[in-house]
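Replying to the earlier thread about multi-chain prediction with a worked example.

Input:
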Amino acid sequence: MSAWQDVVTAALIGTERTGFPRPSVAGLPAPADAPDIPFPDYPVRDSPVREDPAALLLDGAALQTVARRGGRLPERAEPLPVAEADPAPAVGRAPARRLDRLLTGEHPDLLAEWLAAAVARGRRAPAALLPALLDRVRRVSTSDPELRRLAAEAGGCRARWLAGLNPDWKFVTAGSPAGEDAWRRGNAGQRRAYLSALRARDPGAGRDLVAASWDAAGPAERVVFVKAMASGLSLADEPQLEMALDDPNAWVRKMAAEVLAGLPGSALGRRMAERARGCLRLHQGMRGTRLVIIPPAQCDAAMRRDGITPGLVAASSHPGGQTYRVVEVLARTPLAAWTEGFGRPAGQILAIPSGSWAPVLLDGWSRAAIAQRDQNWMTALISRVLTDEPAGTPHWAETLRQLARQVDPGLGAPGIAVGRDGLSAPVQDAIRVLRFRYDMLKELDDDDSAG
Amino acid sequence: MSVPPARVSPVAERWERERVLALAPDAPSQRVAQALAAARAWASTGAAQASTGQASTGQASTGQASTGQAGTAGPGVLWGECRGSAAAPYRAVVDLSGPAYRCSCPSRKFPCKHVLALLLLWAEGAVRDDPAGPPEWAASWLAARTGGAQAREPGLPKDPKTAARRAEQREARVASGLAELDRWLCDQVRQGLAASQQAGYGHWDDMAARMVDAQAPGVAERLRALATVPHSGAGWDGRLLEEYAMLRLLAAAYRNRAGLPPPLLETVRSRIGFSLRQADVLANGQPVRDHWQVLARRDIEQDRIRTRRTWLRGRKTGRPALVLSFAAAGLPLDESLRVGTDADADLVFYPGAVPLRAVVQDTRDSARGDPPEGGTITGLLAGYASALAGDPWLDTWPAVLDVTPTRSPAAAVFDADGDALPLHPGAGGSWPLFALSGGHPVTVAGEWTPRGLWPLTAWDEAGRVFGLVPL
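Result:
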């Protein structure tokens, strides 16, 4: 060891500046004493002189290098604590491969659904994929505590064990056992985690906590509060959210309107339905039934209170503003207003001609169906798109993708979502998402029944 | 020449989609191919049983192609016509036994997106078997391909006199190149290695270029790799000295080549970069038949060349083997040896003091294999030591160990005897290995190097195999 270090030091300084030790290995002749090597076809004048200290040092170093490599002895190490055995079994081969695909770039936005589905079936993610899973979740989830929670749950004991080894993954253990301390003394992320956990466990307690903390909270935290109420939402939450509609901060108001629009039976929904019925009428004409659209003339104060911002084009009398207002109203209107108001199921309503307004209506209804998690409407919308492919608004591709992500995955079964010639890219994309979700859940189901 | 024995394709079953995607030259190709892998993009597709090359003239065989032989289940040939931007459809053919592919599209990627998409479709079960066999345009390519393969085989030696003169010239050039290297190495040590930390890549690249001119590419490659050593953390000076010392030893050994035993001379020559032709290796070597476990593999890219190292071990002989394959950057590497499988194959070893590198002569069968038997750390070190006695330049040695990973004090593995070895600092924390183990012993295969163990494959308690490095 030290003999080698002496040689290295001499080489570092240079043999022209320092003396050097004669490296040797016990039991072997020193290189200088080794028999002279003949130089049959080697131009002698070019070769380093055998007594050259640099050459001697290198020869000795070679000897030591091989001796050190060959004579290396095992070291000692301390074992780690052993991970607890997980009561939940890992998923089988096919779901594991699917998770690998999700983690290596395919449909990254479906990761949460895979995790939730695995957890719901009492399965966990395979151990070998946990580092990739935790790295991904850490990168993307600062604004998505739900994904962290799902990853921690799907990762099970093994993920908690890994989190003890790698500080990057602390969030796995940080989220779960946080008590009231996290709420009183924690940072913004810990407070959010505490609130969403409480809300998931006991929506009423979560609501009370929000109500008690509302006055002291700043706008950023109020947005967090309102967002947290979106899960486990019920009519009991309405007074708190209606109050938030009058908040001085625009983001708080907007978020509250968004949450209320997803609450069946809300007063906001009734107000929207009122506006929407003024916009959209059934007209029985000579050539059958049509939908007639009368866009709201302007964005009045009551509409703004309910979350319809004037937007960039909306303030003008530009037709884009009319379109925008119709979409915004439709997107917040309870879908029952149409099925009950027109006395027809969703599929039939979608088939009523509406001329050039069709793409606008499709967009508005789709957004409403997504916000209200209305499976009937989502299914009807997707089925219509797959059979008839109507044109959409500029935001249509994103809306369609959201639909495909949230609609009953049974629509992705082979034979239902069938690609045809000439489908547009957004529709093909939606079909791919549906197929992927169907296959993904089917694998987990098959896995479940087999295991 | 008589008809060559029919080679039973090791890829009789339908491939998994990962295996298809692994063939893609790059990530964009994967994405485009997945988009193209939809039945509507294809005017026609078909698959046929593994046709024994010489009979595939297409139009003659109207009935079932070779269903007689047992074990040849599944198609061996795929074809399809893909609607592209051009008026005529692109025609893609795949011979799964290679695999080898061809497509009429103008893409320079290889395999192109059409071939990949066709394989993906087939992997999903969307390509039907066509009892009529391949259409004329596909059959003619297949026939030409098998014909070409036969024609390539013998490789007649050129004029022996010219060949001898060339060889002599090369030896002289290598000798003077290595003399120059020797002087350069001594200069480094005379002036001190401290200066190397400020030196740029050019310091080594210039010398490497001289070694290329001197027809010693193996030395050139080693020199180029040295440029990163001064920035490799504590102990860089010792590592650089080791490399310089071993290079001078190589120069000295070549200078003394007349006195070396023939196997050691082969080792020296191969490290300098005298390459043997695979045909000569096959012709002169003794095939070793065994059930070769495919333990691990690692891909390395240097100077726009990708090298795949695949480590094997014979179940009967216990012998380690290393199969190398090369491809230009952006082109796919050989996929025929899959980690976790056993290949019943004949291997022919390259000559050398420690014959490790081998070429697969013939594969009879390939199937999912049981996990290998892991060894102890003392066993690994003893094996490496005796290999070093034969080939002192050996710095990558296959390891198969039953060990538990730990991180105290540093990332390491220890075995049932309590012996421990460090993990290679370049192995990125080896987190998948830790995740898999959970503090319990696992069987690990990898590469043992002077800087530590580079884990590449692990088997969990259920015997499932996991690759630990992304490929």
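DSSP finds 23 helices and two strands in chain A.

Feel free to reuse this layout for your own posts.
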